[in-house]
Amino acid sequence: MIKVKDSDTLIDIVNKISVSNKEKIVLDFPFGHQVLHNYLSLKIIKNKCLDKELIIITNDINAKNIGKRIGIKYSLTSNKDLSKTQELLKYNFTFFSFLKFQIKKYIEEIAYFLKSDKNQQLGIHNITKNTKTRIGFFTTILLISISIFTFIFYFAVNKTIVSITPETTIKTRNKNIIFTENEETPSYRNNIVTIKKISNKTSLKETFGTSGVEIKNNKRSFGKAIIYNYLDEEVELIKNTRLKTKSGLLYKIKKDINIKKAEKNKEGIIIPGKIEVEIVAKDFDINGEVIGKNGNIKKGTKLILPGLNEKEKESIYGETSSDIIGGSNEYAKILTKEDIDNSYKIFEEKLKQNSLKELKNKIKQENISNNITYEILGIDKIIKYSDLNIKEVGRILNPGQKRDNFTLSGSIVINTYVYNKNTVINKMRSVIKNSIIEGDEKITFINDKSLRVSNVIYKQKYPHEIKATLQIEVFVSHNFDNEENYYVEKLKNEILGLDKEDAIKILLNDNKISEVNIEIRPFFINKVSNILKNIEFKLK
After folding, report:
1. In terms of residue numbers, what domain contains 298?
2. pTM value?
3. How confident is the model at residue 10 (pLDDT cuts 50, 70, 90)?
4. Average pLDDT for residues 407-427, to the nearest whole number?
């Protein structure tokens, strides 16, 4: 075997091959030698060996992919470096590939021993005796090696990683807090929080439409329609019975009518009873809009009777027998008392909504500027409105005026109290901390958005003070990180040596675990390790 040094160049290696008289050229390369990764250099070395078999010994796994293409054989490691071999076994090779390598190595050593010059100089008796002795010796060593490698792979190398997501439960925690406007009250006390009054004035202008309409009778659409009756009995419709189009336009018949019942002809086909009648459009459609010229529709438009159920609408219906004409939009809009009353109510509500929206934006900007977390105290009637002022823009509103719209303007003042949300949460932390089982549970998340007033105990005006019960949601899970908690050891013992699928089922049945993933190394083993220290729990 030719030992290649780190400092050897391609020329040095070629020279060593030239002086070798062995039938096989065995080159023992150090890990990472530059020649191993150079295709041209390997080609030169292969050609220099002529017809001799070239074997390269190296632990460099990536290097062998280059040389194999030109017929170079590779061996994993030399006999002198067993510790590195074991390390390679752990990280780079399967158990069976490494076992194959070791068996092949021992066979080659036995063959080499039998062919050695020393044995050829001995007598036939000694050759037979020594050969049997040596074969027994190497067989014993081989079995011991296989046992050691099996132990390493299945006990030392075999590792199980269990990744779990703890089950989370939501717990509600309460604390009584006194909110006071009196700045002299010592706020350092655990149940006292200072509040402050905040105000904002909002102005608004809004335009409203009128709902009254003045319509002339000769401007409604009119025409003729045929009413069909598919029932086996006569139908009577009285004057002003409504007819409706698919789009919601309404018409009425101008007189009482009787529609004959349906009959069957010789072929069994139903012949409906029918009658033609004059119709005229109503002032407003189904949605309360003025019909006007929209009532001018084409011949053949289907008309239904709105008061009938769905089945009856298919048995009795109408169809325009001529174009419906004559409708126009020559009408006047009228201001009604309801328009005025409703507009004042709507305008006042919009003023309140806008003032609250502006106040919240004002608080938000102050929080950003001052790095604080003020919020409106969430109790009933904490928000007060004052100085409401609404006036009419333009001429004074009177019912009966002909106008399409009118405008209102006004202002309002909003008053309320705010508190520092973070101060309250910090005061509640002691309650939250004392509510968990130390060592067994841990807090994963405090939902500050869930903070709310659940009960008001008392109120007073001067100074403004409120005592209330505050409530907050806390997310709690089992504390798997606690080394003094033996729950993890208990779980390890439950899955020790089990199949992967069975271990997952057992862990998922535990009410403290939400999700489980098990990774077993090496990949071809499907059982959890039999050694506790080789089972590792991780939290996701």
Report:
1. 217-329
2. 0.52
3. confident
4. 94
Q: Is position 168 within any domain?
A: no
Q: Is there a contact between 244 and 286 (Cβ–Cβ < 8 Å)? A: yes
Contact indicator for 249, 294 with CB cutoff of 8 Å: yes
| Percent of the chain surpassing pLDDT 90 | 41
CA dist., res. 439 & res. 448, Å (int) = 24
Q: Is the pLDDT of residue 127 over 60?
A: no
> Residue written as tokens 């298919």?
314
| Amino acid occupying residue 347 | F
Backbone angles phi, psi at 199, to 5 degrees: -130, 160
Instruction: Calculate the CA 16 to chain-centre distance.
Output: 66
71 and 11 together in one domain = yes
Buried b / exposed e along 327-365 (16+ C-beta atoms within 10 A): beeeeebbbbeebbeebbeebbebbbeebbeebeeebee
Q: Is residue 473 part of a domain?
A: no
Final residue before a domain boundary, out of 370, 393, 418 = 418
Token readout for 244 is 């409706």
Tell which of 268, 298, 329 closes a domain.
Answer: 329
Cα Dmax for the chain: 142
The CA R_g of the chain, rounded to the nearest whole Å, is 48
- Residues 266 and 411 occupy one common structural domain: no
Q: Judge if 33 and 121 occupy the same domain.
A: yes
